[in-house]
Amino acid sequence: MQTVTFTVTGTTKRTFTVNNSDRMAHRQDYLLDLRGSGPVTTVTAEAAGGLSLSVERP
Description:
- This protein is mainly beta.
- It has strands at 3-10, 13-19, 40-46.
- The termini are far apart.
C-alpha cells in the first residue's frame, strides 16, 4: 500500500494524504495524531487493496 487518504470530519472536514516510499520495510502502519483538531465526529481511510482502520482515543 503506497497511499492512504484520511478524511476527518468535525467542526470542519479535512483530508490528509500519506504516501509511503517503495524503500520502506515496515508493516506500513500510519499514525495520524488529531490532538488539537477540535471535536472529531468521524474518521475514514481509503487505500488501494486491503485496509483496516483503528481509532484510539486518549
